[in-house]
Amino acid sequence: MAAPNIVNVATITAKTDSVALSSTGGISVLSNASNSGIVMQVVSLYAANVDGSAAADVTVTVHNEPAGAGTGFALASTVVVPADASVVVIDKNSPIFLEEAMSIKATPSAADDIEITVSYQEIS
Question: What's the whole-model pTM score?
Answer without folding.
Answer: 0.92
